[in-house]
Fold these 4 entries.
Entry 1:
Amino acid sequence: MHRHRRATPRWLAAGLLAASAALTVHAAEAPAVAPIELAAGVYMLPGAKGEPDATNLGRVGNAGFIVGRSGVLAIDTGTSYLHGRALLAAIGSVTDKPVRLALVTHTRPEFLFGGAAFRERGIPVRMHSRTATLMASRCETCLKTLRQVVGDTPMLGTAMYRPDQQFDADEELTLIGRPVRALYFGHSSGPGDIAVLDVRSNVLFAGGLLDAQRVPDIQDGTLPGWRQALAALRALRVSTVVPGHGPATSSDVIGSVERYLDQLETRVRAVVAAGESLIDVADASELSEFATWDQYETIHRRNASVAYLRFERELMFK
């Protein structure tokens, strides 16, 4: 006699599936990031060096948060859903005040793909409208690339999303009971890149505008606009800078980035004027002052090629 296997009730199957997914996510999660207090109520959550890979789980960008009288402002959301959860756990290790908002500074995967972890907790994600536009146009491809280089498991739960809030200009944020300024300088290191200034401590979260001991990426930037933004940052006379990548530092980092951009432009313009080919530009554009910086062999070589094409186009259309 054949015995018929009793079908699993739908409610039980759904519960088992959810439990299995939760266990998978838990197993994939890395330890919470250790917050570094830079000033009273102002914290940095440091990223790793290098390019995203399976070893660093793609978590190469800095994030941070500011604790005010009535809540917390999170600055950048991490590389993945699981990274976003780790950042939230780090915030929770410092304060039980609610996170009121997550503010994304620029369009790089390591700063925005953790948004789902914040949104599932009812925390709105806010970014400049031009950042949102660039994200929508290309970040599906970014996410596929991240899964290839980091692996599927660290990227569990990570998905494209639309920001809950957008803005177009400088603004004062008062929702945490502490004055914070979102600063937009026009198209600089990227079309919608912003910096975030905690007014009370004079700590600046520089996002894509500044990297420390790492080669800045010009792919989305405009050099004249970037220089204008750096001049505006210098005028702020901030006490401490949290760069997009690299350790927290002083405002001297502004001069370091300016020197790199200036030397890159001078060298590559000379290469173009000499009639050398695109194939040779990276080797002809070595900048010894920056050779020890993180990503010199990758980002600097790409920068040289990007700059070459831009300057060559300028000559063609003069």
Entry 2:
Amino acid sequence: MLKVVLLLSVLLSGVAFAATDSRVCAPFRDGVVDHRIVAEMLKAAKAGRLYRIHSTTSRVGFCVNSLIGRVEAEFQGFRGGLALRREVWGDDSQMLVMIDSESLKTKQQFIRDMIQSERFLHTKKFPKILFVSTALEWDSETTANLHGVLTMHGVSKPISFRVELTNAFGEAPKHEHEIVVIAKAFIQRSDFGMTSLPFFVDDVVELCLTVSALRYHQQ
């Protein structure tokens, strides 16, 4: 059961799902995600097998080295979820998340403007970042590799997150189904068509997530 709960928290939604509302998967319809995945998400919601994160205590962002130092940024808008199709997590389960690239926040405004510009994320043309899981590999009771496809800047590439169960916020879970995890992955921005300023910004970007998740129960 620990394995089930752990991965439920990775990359999940900052937006609550209403189990009886057919609009819960609206952002993923119309060909954005395979319709079969959307159907499973809706079934999971109705069956009480959907998991979501606490948006106020969860973080989705990235880090990259540059000539002015290490740049850290976070996205404030993200949604998605997990359809748990088995009592124990398996390949038949599905996770997906969508990030609003225009919700980016950084300490310096000029850094934010540069990242959102045509040189990098080009948020006006590519306002969404999408992750869809494909497989999961456990190597211990608390660590695993989550594989999937990341679509960003109009390019889709395979990606693997390293997932670890942790008490990142220094507090014990307040609910038996609540946990805290850290997930990290390294990508090359050039793989996603972002090749500008190679001497100013490193090609390798670290994706960082710290999230707490609670099982959704239909009211």
Entry 3:
Amino acid sequence: MAQEVPVLSQSERMQQVLRMLENRDSVHVTELAETFAVSEVTVRSDLSELSRQGLVARVRGGVRPLPRGQSELAFDLRLRLEAERKQAIARKAAALVEEGEAVALDSSTTAYYLALELRAKRELVVVTNGLLIAAALADAPGITVLVTGGTLRLSSMSLVGEIGADALRTTRINKGFLGARGLSLERGLMDLNPEEVRIKQEMADACERVIGILDGTKWHRSALLSFVPAAQVHSIVTDSSAPTEETGAWRARGVEVHVADIGSPGSSPVRPRDLRRVAPTEEDADA
């Protein structure tokens, strides 16, 4: 008996296409029509809308990620993936930050949304390797921003390398909020890029408490490299789509799991700033 394919809205199909392009050079109309159980005409309409929004590049028979020279939009693309979930997580995570603390934010898109939520805090020190995160907090009157040094990694607009690692080794931070590609009780928090993993490790080591910030889609993923073992994770902030069995398993290990309700009453999503104002245009991006 053939497995029934769930009916997805256009927005859900577009999100799925963007997720596929995170790890692939291209996706094609015929494949997507089969995957989503819709007509090729419908798929072409979806891809045209993604192209119109500047999120993908059209090629014959499908789409591909944007060229390397448009890496500022690569961050913007990831920012729009699961945006509602990330904003809900950011609001929940911001409630864990006390005024007067020093906190670390990595260069993840969820951390970017958290930075926007922190702008109203007072007497806060934020340490980050994310240039766009630093820019988002630059004019917040109650926040002092410390940016780690290092080599610019254009695709994530982050600073990586030994200079940043050295700076973190002499810093003591109350709480670190770190995004991840995936997680498991066996391997902890995981990511793909070795340079990003190294700076996340140093950031975690400098923090008294390590807090993972990741949406429900990351709970079923694995990744090449672990950067924080499960025993070093104090809390996880996720959204209500996270699998109950897995969140329960983490809680059984003594880890606090905070679950944000998506679109909870009284919440007003903070819109991201225009990233193109601060993003460079060099063509030496790391894809």
Entry 4:
Amino acid sequence: MLIAMAGLPGTGKSTLARHLADAYAAVVLDKDSIRAALFPAALIEYSTRQDDFCMSIMFQVATYLLHNNPLQHVIIDGRTFSRSYQVVALEQLSRDLNVPLKIIECVCSDESAQRRLAGKQSIGEKSEKHLAANRDYNLYLTIKAHFEPIREPKLLVDTDNDLAQCLAACLAYLSNATDAEAQSS
């Protein structure tokens, strides 16, 4: 299964991704980690072009992992999927790999996002310094102003709720997907 974590910066995507990875023995592929591994700090530019390049590498890694182990679950993290073309690319990858795609869109109040991005609060965990140096409340507001709604089937998770409640909703959503797949096989 391919699981995509969507939502604005600071909405809890990475926190949920880590917990889901533990629950499913899944691999988390994070755009910001990939960018940090590929580019020296002086060459990191946080441009759409560089983001798309990092995503293309991430998709290649997902392809490699899923070809080598079709039962593997891969979680795509680190991108907001705020543009339709980004979701279309996910769908194409899912079709190419012949694996189900599950999108989990994280949302929270502006106040929670602002606190989290300032490093004062994280959903269910102590905040850590994020790899993406451009990740702040202004970026959140900019992306929010231009966010194209995700029209594809998805689970919407309000991360202002308790982490355990959010995780339970995600696990139920993903479990239903794997149960349905097992029944159709």
